[in-house]
Specification:
The chain is of the alpha+beta class. The chain has a single domain (11-96), classed as Orthogonal Bundle (Arc Repressor Mutant, subunit A). It is built from four helices and three strands, in the order αβααββα.
């Protein structure tokens, strides 16, 4: 029997990473500040998790200046979108195969 957890991606086990990818899946680019406010996390916490997703190749970062103020935005990569969709499919399958949904 196949391990029912094998298709879950460890990169999305944390709620901040799961939330960040959820937001990035439905938006082209999202500013760091908007992500921080949406997820209600600290700068350091969000930066750490986005760094992990970036290292995995799941998000890309765009740094720019608006006037003299730095602005950082993030977007999900094609690899990240595919991995996240596979993770969601695995969660759905896990629930269905264990009689937790109809």
């Amino acid at each position: 029997m196949k391990n029912i957890l094998s298709d879950l991606d460890k990169a999305f086990e944390n709620r901040v990473r799961l939330g960040a990818m959820s937001v990035l899946m439905v938006n082209d680019w999202v500013e760091f500040t908007a992500l921080k406010e949406t997820l209600e996390v600290t700068d350091g916490n969000l930066a750490s998790h986005l760094g992990g997703l970036e290292k995995a190749g799941y998000v890309q970062v765009r740094k720019a200046f608006i006037g003299r103020k730095p602005n950082t935005s993030y977007a999900a990569t094609d690899k990240g979108k595919a991995a996240f969709q596979q993770h969601l499919n695995a969660l759905e399958s896990l629930l269905k195969n264990n009689g937790l949904t109809s």
